[in-house]
Design a protein that fits this description.
mainly alpha
Length: 58
Amino acid sequence: MDDFLQFLREPIAQRSLLACLMIGFANGFVSGLVILKKSALQIGTLSCALLPESRWPC
């Protein structure tokens, strides 16, 4: 347990944990908006434009 706490005191660990939390929050927030606005088709089109190599059937 002490090793884990020592790892969390490192600046790189704190920054990466913060980045993961921010990405997770943004993902949840945008997903909620997509569901509420029922714009999944537009988001799918946007994802195909941004990630042309993805395996999603575009």
